[in-house]
Design brief:
By secondary structure, this protein is α/β, with parallel strands linked by helices. The protein is 28% helix and 15% strand. Helix 8 links the parallel strand 8 and strand 9. Helix 6 crosses helix 7 and helix 11 runs parallel beside helix 13. It binds calcium ion.
């Protein structure tokens, strides 16, 4: 017993000296918890991996590349380590992006078949990877049979004739009016208008209609029966434009309806607006809403890295957000993300000689937030793309050779993107690449469960240094602290009392360790130290 204890202590000492002296030769074992605090990889199937040579990514192609996302083996470090996938819309649609659905219970033939989907889900689940699907309930395609039936019927009515829902129930599925209301567009060949907030090809559905709710009840059952682990709700703020209480009611209906069928389903909503407007949506019981205030070129993370905020702002803004969400739902799960398919790629936010470090560090700041953290495909390669939506959805850069196996052609109107940080082939070999760094940060999420699950506390170890941010998170009996050096210069800081250095990442030089000597921590430029209480994580 005593011998074992000494051996354990020695192992601990060796790990520590290696951490501070000779690079991370002994990485702590992963500790992955099977819950809804995950690391989720957002995939645009169209641009991910093409399995049949038509230049369009597909579900069998994605399945082929699952080893890249997660190989299901905790002892390897050749995969990203994401343990959830968000599939952007996969159902039949006339557009390349497929956010206008014509059949909610099938797979677009460009992407494959239901059998391909079932195989993908089975393969994901065998690796401990959850799959959530985009759920576009705000609107359908104008080519959806519901809309076509409603339109055809309305065109038969006389000028003073009111629609008869018994003759055509689909009229109630949408918002039709003979007046041109705000957000409405003319129905060609008739004296009717219909609500279409995004585009005439996307008529807004009437989510107050019992018949529509019954349809989505069946549609969620369909996908849950096919094994999905949850849903990403598109365009929540447009459910009832400008009417947050009604949106909350609709979200409550959806959440209750799904959780009655699968109590541990995970639901995340896209409410692209300010925090005060969407935080009350948490009262619906929907697990998560994307945390827009930290994302994009003008969000908290980019602002701080551009010097428009202090390191302390990073901690305080998280605390403000968490406290607000918690006040509406104690079981909320934050959904931090840095970019998505609607935003310019993150690597374009920084210029000059620090651009690479800042691109990497921003991803770490995002991925080390609490909650279920999202990573948009290709951000881990620092892919480029801005302007038109198509540019933000460019082919995954497996190779710099566009004719290499599996490479996609990308959306038709995409401007060719110059990928300045190289393809996966280049980056996989380079310990200082964006890819290698991102993998290291995800490893931290998978090693220290409190990072995702604890509430943010200010550590108070900054010694008045505006470039140092100390964050502590506790969950069950684990306790982890993170010290961020958000500057281009090396810094030192006193080791917080009762803590020891257990891990680190460095966005400047992966070989230049965070180290500790005589209770003084040396934090290289753009590094992050991971600390645990002296007694170690239990
Ligand atoms: Ca294909």
């Amino acid at each position: 017993m005593k011998k074992r204890l000494i051996a354990l202590l020695l192992t601990g000492a060796l790990t520590l000296s290696c951490l501070s002296g000779c690079g991370k030769t002994a990485k702590p074992a992963l500790n992955i918890i099977d819950d809804n605090y995950r690391t989720c990889y957002e995939v645009f199937v169209y641009s991910f991996y093409d399995s049949d040579g038509d230049g369009i990514g597909d579900l069998p192609g994605l399945e082929k590349k699952l080893d890249y996302i997660n190989d299901g083996d905790d002892t390897t470090d050749s995969d990203l380590g994401c343990n959830e996938i968000w599939l952007m819309p996969i159902s039949p649609s006339p557009t390349y992006h497929k956010y206008d659905v014509t059949d909610y219970m099938d797979i677009d033939p460009e992407y494959g078949t239901m059998e391909d989907f079932d195989a993908l889900i089975e393969d994901c689940h065998s690796r401990g990877v959850h799959v959530i699907i985009d759920f576009v309930m705000n609107h359908s395609s104008s080519e959806h049979p519901w809309f076509v039936a409603a339109s055809d019927y309305l065109k038969t009515l006389d000028a003073d004739e009111e629609p008869d829902l018994e003759a055509c129930p689909y009229v109630d599925y949408y918002h039709f009016s003979r007046e041109k209301l705000e957000g409405y567009t003319a129905l060609p060949g008739s004296d009717w208008y219909y609500e279409a907030r995004f585009w005439e090809g996307m008529p807004d559905l009437n989510l107050k209609s019992e018949a529509v709710r019954k349809e989505f009840d069946e549609i969620t059952s369909f996908w849950l029966d096919h094994g999905v682990d949850g849903f990403r709700l598109d365009a929540v703020t447009s459910y009832e434009t400008g009417q947050p209480d009604e949106i909350t009611e609709e979200l409550t209906w959806f959440n209750d309806m799904v959780k009655a069928k699968k109590s541990d389903a995970y639901i995340v909503g896209e409410a692209w607006t300010n925090r005060k407007f969407y935080a009350p949506f948490y009262a619906s019981g929907v697990d998560s809403f994307f945390d827009f205030s930290f994302a994009d070129s003008n969000g908290n993370i980019a602002k701080i890295l551009h010097g428009a905020g202090s390191a302390a702002d990073f901690a305080q803004s998280q605390i403000n957000a968490e406290t607000l969400y918690q006040s509406y739902n104690p079981n909320y799960i934050n959904a931090p993300f840095y970019t998505n398919h609607d935003m310019a790629r993150g690597s374009g936010y920084y210029t000059g000689e620090l651009a690479l470090q800042q691109t990497k560090y921003a991803l770490a700041m995002n991925l080390l937030m609490q909650g279920n953290a999202f990573l948009y495909y290709g951000e881990e390669l620092g892919m480029r793309g801005s302007g038109a939506d198509e540019n933000k959805r460019a082919p995954m850069q497996w190779s710099s050779d566009a004719t290499a196996e599996g490479m996609c052609k990308g959306p038709a109107n995409m401007k060719q993107q110059e990928m300045i940080y190289g393809s996966l082939e280049d980056q996989a070999k380079d310990p200082n690449s964006i890819y290698s760094f991102t993998k290291e940060v995800i490893r931290l999420r998978n090693t220290y469960p409190a990072i995702a699950r604890g509430m943010t506390e200010i550590l108070g170890a900054e010694d008045g240094d505006s470039q140092i941010c100390g964050i502590r998170r506790r969950w069950e009996d684990s306790d982890v602290a993170m010290l961020f050096n958000i500057s281009s210069e090396d810094r030192t800081v006193a080791m917080p009392e009762g803590y020891q250095l257990v891990d680190w990442v460095n966005a400047t030089d992966a070989k230049n360790a965070v180290s500790e000597k005589d209770q003084i921590l040396s934090l290289p430029a753009y590094s992050i130290a991971i600390l645990s209480p002296d007694s170690g994580t239990k």
